[in-house]
């Protein structure tokens, strides 16, 4: 919890900001790619959904690489993979090729950087672990504040191809942050996969399985608004440049939610489980009200509230996983949770796209 720990927290936050921003802002690119290639909403949505799914679904693989080579090496290599994929994507002439050039490399790269931040933060923090985790994790949504206007401006002035090149160039800054993520000098025992019973023990942990199940349900529905409300806002008459501001509202709300709930979860009198339940309830109720909203003020209000709830839920669930598993199995537990939730990311948005194809107003969706 010393000064060096907070430096590491800052580096992890910046790394997450850049790498996650390349895929979490796909909703801004979505309408452009939809018009450019002429595929249906469901097929186009799969490009972003697969990247999101792999960004957490490869958690078990990333965890094993981190245990073998360390968070520093994985962060550097993963970010380079993501950057190469973005550069190649800028040259493709077919949407299906983006599954190979964008979805897989960016998903793999993001997962490596993202999970590495959890590993390194857990080694540097104890008393303020929840807050530090929330801050580092908030980099993934602060990217909405920083990169949404940037991507919108780049699309308007340069086009989508050069926009992917800009994203690739930004990703090449991540190895610099990763190089500074030195392992702490401590007796901390690195978690290994050598114990063949570790995964068996996790699958017998009923609390962890319940956490995974609720996470799947939450994110199956939660990914749909994040991707499809960009098009929905344009359908109700909101200009595209203002639609990008909706994601800024989500980023502000999510950042505040993560930090506030993270600080609260460090208090002995606050239960992460109660914070989790409250956050998911707010997210669900706010989304049910979306069909009644057709103005910019209403939609940005929704995005901000939903972002706050999403951030609170994300922070609380990490603390729950930490509480219900022993320290030596936390990375494996997070890997399992990420894998289950990735199935929701992979299927939620395309399901919403399929509904949207039969629902021109998107209200049912």
Can you walk through the features of this model?
- The chain is mostly helical and 365 residues long.
- The protein folds into two domains: 1-183, Up-down Bundle (Growth Hormone, Chain: A); 197-364, MFS general substrate transporter like domains (Growth Hormone, Chain: A, Up-down Bundle), CATH 1.20.1250.20.
- 80% of the residues lie in helices and 0% in strands.
- It has 15 helices and no strands.
- The protein has helices at residues 3-24, 26-37, 41-57, 59-69, 71-89, 98-124, 129-157, 160-171, 174-179, 198-203, 206-235, 240-265, 272-288, 296-324, 330-357.
- Helix 4 packs across helix 6 (98-124).
- It starts with a helix and ends in an 8-residue tail after the last helix.
- The model is unreliable at 187-197 (pLDDT under 50).
- Residues 5-365 form the Major facilitator superfamily (MFS) profile domain.
- One of its GO terms (cellular component) is plasma membrane.
- GO terms for molecular function: transmembrane transporter activity.
